[in-house]
Design a protein that fits this description.
Low-confidence stretches: 13-29
CATH topology: Immunoglobulin-like
Organism: Candidatus Gallionella acididurans
Keywords: Copper, Metal-binding, Signal
Distance between the termini: 45 Å
Radius of gyration: 18 Å
Pfam family, one: Copper-bind
Order of helices and strands: HHEEEEEEHEEEE
Number of domains: 1
Number of strands: 10
GO molecular function: copper ion binding; electron transfer activity
Strand order of the largest sheet: 1-8-5-2-3
InterPro entries: BlueCu_1, Cu-binding_ET, Cupredoxin
CATH superfamily: Cupredoxins -  blue copper proteins
CATH class: Mainly Beta
Mean pLDDT: 84
Oligomer: single chain
Structural class: alpha+beta
Length: about 160
């Protein structure tokens, strides 16, 4: 392949990448993305109680795909949102603006009514720290948040 053709292909690839929203590129590269059921390596069950989760620390491997089965055993609606600190702060502000309106399920989170169980499949990105949280107004501030430690060889 000649130099001009290589440059043209490289330019086209760069233009394509520039059309993608930057937050989506950064998000996918850092804390992960929606996973596929065929790639699930293990399942983690989490219970949402009123103003807390039954687990507050989880350990996963970078690149690992986890099936989260979340059950709301509380009397209130809860969320289970996976995200880095920036994502959690943005979602907290969004929920404050939409207080009482509820949120539809998202690629990185689910909303559960009392008694409901839902599944979220997530593939973790780079090593670091991620949170899972509930942003129903007042819940995050009350401590309804847990940490996910993403490591190279974490079990």
């Amino acid at each position: 392949m000649n130099f001009d053709r290589k440059m043209k292909l490289a330019s086209m690839a760069l233009l394509f990448l520039l059309t993608l929203p930057v937050p989506a590129l950064v998000q996918a590269a850092t804390f992960g993305h929606t996973g596929k059921a065929s790639q699930v390596g293990r399942t983690i069950r989490i219970t949402a109680l009123d103003i807390r989760f039954d687990k507050i620390r989880l350990h996963v491997r970078a690149g690992e795909t986890i099936r989260f089965i979340v059950t709301n055993k509380g009397q209130l609606t809860h969320e289970f949102i996976i995200g880095d600190a920036r994502e959690q702060a943005e979602h907290e502000q969004e929920m404050k603006k939409k207080a009482g309106m509820g949120m539809p399920d998202e690629p990185n989170g689910i909303t559960l009514k009392p008694g409901q169980t839902k599944t979220l499949i997530w593939t973790f990105g780079l090593e670091g720290e991620v949170e899972f949280a509930c942003h129903v107004p007042g819940h995050y501030a009350a401590g309804m948040v847990g940490k996910i430690f993403v490591g190279a060889n974490t079990k």
